[in-house]
Amino acid sequence: MRTILDGVGDSLFLHDMNGRIVAVNHRAVEESGYTEDELIKLTVADLSPEAIAAGKHGIWAQLRLGQTALVSGLHRRKDGSRYPVEARLSLIRLDGGEPLVCALVRDMTERFRLEGELGLSSRVFDCAREGILVTDVAANIIRVNKAYQRITGYAEEELLGRNPSLMTAGLHGPEFYHAMWQALKDCDHWEGEILNRRKNSTPYHSWLSVTAVRGANGEVLNYIGICSDLTERKQSQQQIERLSYFDSLTGLPNRMLMEDRLRQNISSAKRRGGYAALMLADIDRLGKINDTLGHEAGDALLKVVATRIGACIRPGDTLARYVSDEFVIILDDLSSPADAGMVAEKICAAFNDHITVGGQNISTGVSIGISVFPQDGETPEAVLRCADTAKRHVKTEGGSRYQFYSDELNQQSLEHLILEASLRKALDRHEFELHYQPQVDLASGRIVGVEALLRWRHPDMGMISPASFIPLAEEIGEIVRIGAWVLEEACRQAKRWHDQGHELKISVNLSARQFRQRDLPGLVRGALTASGLSAQALDLELTESMVMERPDQATNVLRELQSLGVSISVDDFGTGYSSLAYLKRLPIDKLKIDRSFVADIPHDSNDMAITQAVIALAKSLNLQVVAEGVETPAQLAFLRSLGCDWMQGFLFSPAVDAETLSGFLAAGKSLFRAS
Fold first, then answer.
1. Which of 33, 238, 456, 650 has its CA 20 to 30 Å from the CA of residue 117?
2. What is the distance between the alpha carbons of residues 312 and 310, in angstroms, rounded to a whole number?
3. Residue 665: phi, psi to the nearest 5?
């Protein structure tokens, strides 16, 4: 207890209900001049006969309610001198004994001295043009001048005792104030621009200088803040900037600001190694509209065009008015150049409907040239020149469409759009088919399961890689319809094999969009019912990134699916979050080791270590393990040595059609020697 008492910065007295002192700390001994033994023989009345008695002014009743009381008065030292104090009283119990009063007593001599000095300069204080406020050490306002009241809109009585945070209203983040207080702690001073709110809630900028005032013993007593209102200066500055950098008609960035942003985006794209694009959009037939309806109508049309284009791009992209009838759109951070073509398509489509200007219905369009940077140029001039070349080509071909500067990129964009259009019709045209890759049991070498894999046989383009069309199907939402078909077809085929006596487990991959469907369990139940397949024969595969996107929600969905009787596998394990805390809670049955870890076995010791760890983890959680991408005998031997349960890969068989796999099953042979 001695250590606890002496750890308190203020003088501390413990006394009973009768005012008899029972314990003090070292600070109380120093300030009073008494020894500890002498103090314990005294009462509170001996030290403060007129103020700090627990029963005075109903303080006892306040303390019994568990409240803290704040009182002030004079303490008497052993030598008879008296000094002002402020005491904070509270009621405590030690080890279940009688209640004691805990009095934390602070010497106020230095504070009163400072307040006296401040009083001497009150006329200067109140006549200052800058706002001035003084706070105590807890940053509660104890005085403000007239200028501060004028700036903030608060009267003095509304501010006294309040914290200046009253004016902040969350306009700066916590890191801002942390830096301010750190500077005050380290240097006793901070100054900078700050954004606060007046009493009427309007924000205002001010330049604030805060200084910590310390006493003779180095203890902070007060903080003094001096602020100047920057509102008028800011408004003037903003107006000048607006005239310099924004188009007066549309309010969009003008050519000067656009070129500055373009320069920044080019540098960013070069650092990232990613894609960004510039579009130069020319309004078709604006000259004729000006000649026919007048320039006032032309100006109104420009405003509508700016609005329609703006609705087609992301908030972080830049739309600027370049010159007269031309707009520039800067698209940053694209996943591929084809994304720019999709945005251009959207912009062109935005002008399919006529525009009403001055009571007249006007039909117009935009001709768009696109350059991708930094490939097509590393300066604003070069990038604009390439986009202008492409735009001119569009104009010569009749306008109202878009063109990439590079013919190759233009072809890619065209192919993307063709692929998207074909993909939307592929399911209805029965162009999809399922192939099945065997999953082989380590112990027997026999096929015990298959993974259903989607293939697209396009009538003109032939087999299209899943890597090309599955992300696109996910992007445009077609994956939901396609995924439902995959699930139903896989269940039907598995039932056929079961009817032939082959008790296979069939694995079906779920997409992220499918997993987010509200009635996914209902969809699975329907596929099982329609096919007659036993739920125990169906295994649903999800990537760990899908599960970990919203782990709590995913857990509920997985439990619903497991309640149907199906099993759950986590695919590509180790390539995403790999949160072990959630893994042990997830209702799953199987882990699949991603092929990227298997591919370099036995040459990469890190991949071997990861594979070993995943298998050990799965075993400890009573989960089955399937290794994907097994292609060599060495990989097979290593996985066998670790006790991997199932494997699949080209060493056994690629994904084959149902008829070929039926032949494997009919032969009934092991795909490798198990011993």
1. 33
2. 5
3. -65, -40
Angle (CA) 46 48 52, round 5°: 125
| Whether residue 556 sits in one domain with residue 489 | yes
136 in the same domain as 67? no
Select from 87, 107, 127 the last residue of a domain: 107
Q: In what order do the strands lie in the sheet with 141-144?
A: 141-144, 131-136, 220-229, 203-214, 189-197
Strand partners, 456: 432, 464
- Cβ neighbours around 651 below 10 Å, total: 16
- Please state the rounded mean pLDDT for residues 416-440: 90
pLDDT at 161 over 70: yes
CATH of residue 575 = 3.20.20.450
365 with 290, same domain? yes
Distance CA 73, CA 50 (A): 7
How many C-beta neighbours within 10 Å does residue 148 have?
23
Calculate helix-pair angle for 255-272, 231-245, nearest 10 degrees. Answer: 90
Q: Rounded distance, CA 191 to CA 189, Å?
A: 7
Contact 655, 664 (CB under 8 A): no
Kindly calculate the radius of gyration of the chain based on its CA atoms and give it in whole angstroms: 39
* 183-239 pLDDT, tens digit each: 888 889 998 888 888 999 888 888 889 999 988 888 998 999 998 888 877 777 777
Residue 54: pLDDT band (50, 70, 90) is very low
DSSP string for 590-623? EEEE-HHHHTTTTT-HHHHHHHHHHHHHHHHTT-
Domain with residue 199: its CATH number is 3.30.450.20
Return the residue matching tokens 């071997």.
Answer: 608
Pairing of strands 220-229, 567-573: unpaired
Q: Residue 361 pairs with which residues in a beta bridge?
A: 356
pTM: 0.46
Q: Any residues with CB less than 8 A from the CB of 205 and at least 6 apart, and which?
A: 193, 194, 195, 229, 230, 231, 234
Does 535 map to a domain? yes
Which of 38, 26, 34 is CA-nearest to residue 1?
A: 26
Range of the domain at 345: 248-422
CB < 8 Å & 24+ apart, contacts of 90-93: 90/63, 91/63, 91/64, 91/66, 92/14
Q: What are the C-alpha distances in Å from 406 to residues 278, 371, 398, 410, 617?
A: 13, 8, 19, 6, 51
Question: Based on the domain organization, do 465 and 557 belong to the same domain?
Answer: yes
| pLDDT given at position 376 | 86
Instruction: Tell me which residue has tokens 């919203």.
Output: 550
Within-domain flag for 159: yes
Q: How many domains does the chain have?
A: 4
Single out the residue of 588, 600, 658 nearest to residue 626, CA to CA.
588
Burial 328-355 (b: 16+ CB within 10 A, else e): bbbbbebeebbbbbbbbbebbebbeeeb
Torsion of CA 491, 495, 501, 505, to 10 degrees: 20
State the residue for tokens 């298998």.
Answer: 615
Element (H, E) at 320: strand 318-323
Phi and psi at residue 399, in whole multiples of 5°? 75, -175
What angle do the packed helices 407-426 and 466-476 form, to 10 degrees?
A: 70
- Please indicate, yes or no, if residue 672 is contained in any of the structural domains: no
Closest CA to 463 of 486, 433, 483: 433
